Each structure stands twice: as structure tokens, then as C-alpha cells.
Amino acid sequence: MLPRILFGDNQFFGVNHMSEDRARAQAMRFHTTRSVLEVLDAAYDEGIAVFMCTTHERIADICDHVRAHPARYAAFEFYPCLPYGVKYANAATEHGVLGALKLFLPQSGALGALLQGGVSLARREVGTIGELLIDAELKMFRGLRTPVIFLQNLVTDLLLGLRFDEGFRIFAEHVRKRYSAEPGFITMNLPRLLDVLETLGIDNPIVCASINKLGFRMCGGIAAYETAIATRRFRPVAMSVMASGAIPPQEALEYVCRQPQIRSIVFGASSRSNIRHTRQLIEELSAAS
Amino acid sequence: MLRAALIGLGKMGVSHLAILRAHPEVDVVAVCDASSYVLEVLKKYTGLKGYTDYRELLEREKPDAVLIATPSRFHAQIVKAALERDLHVYCEKPFCLDVAEGSRLAQLAERKRLVNQVGYHYRFVAPFREMKRLIDLGVLGQIHHLRAEAYGPVVLRPSGSTWRASGAEGGGCLYDYACHAIDLVHYLFGRPDAVAGSVLNRVLSRQVEDEVYSTLFYADGKTGQLAANWSDESHRKMSVKLSVWASKGRMCADRQEIQVYLRQPAPQAPELASGWNVRYTTQLTPPVWFYLRGEEYSAQIDHFVDCVRRRSPTLCPFSAAVDADLVAAMMRKDAQRTRLEAPPALRQSALQAHP
Asked: Which one of A104, A275, B215, B337 is at 20 to 30 Å from A81 when CA atoms are compared?
């Protein structure tokens, strides 16, 4: 059962879709792990037990802290979102696409030789590379609860555009088998992705998408999103609900809470008072609708 | 249906491929790359036909249009082959390393009335488009100074094995980063008539510059400054910013927002008040049919497809990209002159810094 509220991490890593100044101010404010933990603790104490986070290298410090204090974080769960795309994109700029791939794969001789030699890849081999990349990204969460693991929109939408459907299957199967977790998919192209997941037989998927009354980053259009949410079998997680602050919270959350099929809402905030205010709003509006 | 082929499957190529294949009016008939490994994987899992030789692709598949995203040194020959076969061409930036050759190709495309576009995607970023709209309306009055900046994390270690680390292949901060800022300056304010005081410094790279600074001069008295640095990882990804000062106010724009300061309300733009006005990308960006890395990447491909359908000129033709290459070449030449004319005490350090 997905919880109603998930806590996001964009604010910690200088991601803001509206203002570079605001993004930089946040990057400065959350320069230390301690400052991130203070906010995470505030969210946890407000009853938000899930941290939906990228696999940014700094998350490893958060993982260490949670592992070291099992009693304090008895109910705490991570929903990792992989991969941290900027890392791969920057590496691809520096080393080329294959070079970047090699960089993030474990130094196993056989695979290195495989890539080097440009040997034709059988299905099992592409699967193996995918699995190794997933394992490398998830290493930092060892021993922690990760009941849902998401594929980041950069990769979801890349696979979607390329029509590399096998990638979704590799991800879903590996996450289920190896981590006993549910696969989730983040996308900016919700209606299109649902069609593909359906043809792959991935039933009732967890799909996280921008859902806001502005229609911001909702490809296919707001009407197609509303229809998909109302009529299709999947578990929607709403992100970018306030479109990085472009929509006032009350108005933003009214729009999302009006759609009863939306299971979860992920939001980020930087202070306890904001977290509490947003939580209360979601609870009130969810009860009212 | 536009029958398109894509040549070059590096980072930009793969991104274009995903966007193209998601386009409802495009049929990607084949792709071409030097790596047979990449081609085999794509063939097996996505059914795409692959070639390692672009001439063979053009000959056999006879596409209507071709998108070129190879390392820059191959652009000229592939563009030429495509134009000679009467294909519409989209080419990644920088266009051609040889300005004269780029200019000939731009003329050839125009003469044959073929749709031609270069991938300066910042022209499709909503706040910059809004800035252009307001400037063209004359909201700011007489412009006297502008500043164009581009910073980001590309070279962060003293290494580099790809073509980006070689100046002869179109690598270096000037072609890779500064060209985006140069092109935006052209798009908004026109091409400068002269450059001076240019500096191309190495910081980490062995062969190419990592930072570029230059002063721009216009015949009408406007001046500008340009700064680019691709070894700045305090920016999570590439960040481009334009600022302009003028008789009636000032403006700044980046990927996320546009800030306009007006001394008086402007009758041409009644939505703006005197003092500061801020508008965000969330309000300004038109929706796209498919999103991968930013609306602008989808918008520029859609624009190309649309222009081919209408046989209309694009927002970023080859000729514009030749202008960017030309000004980049002016800066490189100016930087060498600046170095030679430096006072003796500075000459040695300037020599070391200059690639």
C-alpha cells in the first residue's frame, strides 16, 4: 500500500524548475548532510516515513545515518529513483556513451572485454549490463528498506522514445527478484508510457508523473492525463504538484486531491512549518473529497 | 510522414533518436554510427536498421531528411553529401569548423531551397524567446550593453579522451560552450562587428581552452561581454544567462526565468509594470508532445519537421550557425593577437595559459 505522502529530494540538490537563484540558495543551505537530516527528521516526525530520493552520491551519507540509528528510524523507508542521470550525462560528455557505461560498470574482466571488443550482444548480456548498473546504483541502500524502486524519467522516457521496451522488463524483473521491491516508473509522458507498460503485461504499475493544474511537464496534455488517471489501471504518484512554486499550495493540492485515483503525492520542502502546512492541507483536502 | 535518418549516436544523437521516434509525423528509416555494437543493440531491441557508412545509408534508404549528430569534424562532408542528394538537413552545433566551407554549404542549401537547421537549442528556450519578443517590440529602448554567460561541468579533471578534448575536432570551450552564448547574442542582438580583448585560457585541458572571455563591439555603439567556462561544476548542468542594459530598463534571462526592470511602463507590452517583472518558464513554455531532457530539445525537432512540411525557413538556419562559427574564429584570432601584444612580463604566463 503506497502511503499518501512521500517526501522528495529536489530541494536538497539545487533542483528548481523555476529559478536558478532559488536552486543555488537551496544548494548552499543543504551543503551539509546534517542540514539535510534536520529536514528529513522534521518530515519523519510529521509522520512522513518515505523518502523518495535520487541515487545522488550524497544520499549515501543519509543511508549511513539511518543504518546507524535503527531505533530512531524504525518505520523509515527509501524509494530510490535511479539512475542519477546528471552523473551519466556528464560522463557521456567526457568519455562518450560507451565510455560512460564502462565507467559505471563493476571492473569485471569479462564484461569489459565484451564492451571493448564490440561483440554482438545476446539478450542475456544486455540484461546483465542493465542489472549490474541497477545493482551499482542501489549499493548505498544495502540493509535499508526500499519497498519501491523507481526508474528516473530520463531513462524511462529515453527507453520510451527509442521503443526499447525490453529495458522496462529488465528493470521490473530485476527489482522484483533481487530486491523484492515493486518497480515504479517516473515519466513526463504518462499516457504514452501506460500504453507501453500495458503491452508488456506490467499490471497495475506504480507511475510517478508531473500532475498539476498548470499542465506543466504533462506531455499529451492535461485532458489526456485526467482521463488516464480516471480510467486506467495504475497507481499514480503525483509530482511537481505545485510546479516548483508556480501554483499556490492550496490551489495546487485541491487540484490533485480532487482526483481520488491519485494514490500518493510527493513534495519537497525545506522547513518543518512548510512540511506541516503541506501535510495538513493534503489531509484536509483528501478527507473533503 | 517524413522519412528521416539519423547519423551519429553519441549523447545528442541518442537523445534526438528518442525524440524523433516519438514524433507522430516522422518515420526513422535508419541510423548510422561508427560503433557496430550500438547498432546491433538498437537493431535487436528496437528494430532500427543500422549502417556504419552514411553514404550507403543515403544511397539505399533515400530518406527525405537527415539529422547529423556526429563529432563536429564530420559535419561538413555529411551535410554536403545530403544536400547534393536534395535532402533537408538538421545538423548539430558547432556547424563547420571551416567558416568558408560552412558558408558555401549554407548557400548551397538556400540555393536548393532545402530546409536547414542547426541545433542551437537555446533559441527554443522560452525565457530567451520572451526576451527576444520584448526586445523586438522595443520595450527596452536603446540597448547599450549586454552580457552573455555560459558555465557548466564538462571538463573537471586534467584528462579527456573524446573529440571534445581536441581543438582540431571542434572540441574546446569556445566551440562547445561559448558558441551557445554567441548564437544567443546573435539571435537577440545581431552579430557584433568586432571583438577585442579575447582570452582563451586552459585550466585543466591539455589541448583546448576551458574558459573564454571576450568584449563585443557593434557599429551602433552597443558593447557586450561574453564569458564561458566549462570547468565549473558549481553548476549542476550547463547554465546560460543573458543580461542587457538599455535606455528604458534592463533584462536578464536564463533557462528558468526572465526578469525585466522597466523605468516606465511600456505601451508595447501593457502586461509589464514599471519596476521589476518576473516571469517563469513554468508559465512561458509551450507544451511539447514528448518530453525527454527539456522542452527545447523536443521543440527544435518539431520545428524542423514543421518547416520541412511547409518548406519554410527555420528559426536557426545554417547561415546563423556560420555566423557563430565566424565570431568564434574572430575570438580565437583576437586571443592570439592579445597574447602576442601582451606586455613582456605577462607574455610568458599568457603563453602558458593559451592553448
From this structure: A275
Nearest CA in chain A to B152: A90
Provide ipTM, 2 decimals: 0.92
- Domain B2-121: assigned CATH number: 3.40.50.720
Q: What is the pLDDT along chain A (289 residues), one digit of tens a residue?
A: 899 999 999 999 878 777 888 888 888 999 999 999 999 999 999 999 999 999 998 999 999 999 999 999 999 999 999 998 777 777 777 677 677 777 776 655 555 555 544 444 545 578 888 888 899 999 999 999 999 999 999 999 999 999 999 999 999 999 999 999 999 999 999 999 999 999 999 999 999 999 999 999 999 999 999 999 999 999 999 999 999 888 999 999 999 999 999 999 999 999 999 999 999 999 999 998 7
Instruction: Say if the Cβ atoms of A118 and B46 lie within 8 Å.
Output: no
Range 135-164 of B in CB contact (< 8 A) with A: 153-156, 159-162, 164
Q: Concatenated DSSP letters for B32-79?
A: E-S-HHHHHHHHHHH---EES-HHHHHHHH--SEEEE-S-GGGHHHHH
CB pairs under 8 A between A and B: 135
What are the extents of the domains in chain A? 5-85+145-288
Minimal C-alpha gap between A19 and chain B (Å): 5
What topology is assigned to B122-282+294-305 in CATH?
Dihydrodipicolinate Reductase; domain 2 (3.30.360)
Torsion, CA A10, CA A21, CA A92, CA B27, rounded to 10: 80
Q: Rounded to an integer, what distance in angstroms lies between the CA atom of residue B336 and that of residue B355?
A: 10
Identity of the amino acid at A106: P
As its CATH architecture, domain A5-85+145-288 has Alpha-Beta Barrel (3.20)
Test A161 with B9 for CB contact under 8 angstroms.
no
A94 interface with B at CB cutoff 8 Å: yes
pTM of the model: 0.93
- With CB atoms and an 8 Å threshold, state whether A96 touches B237: no
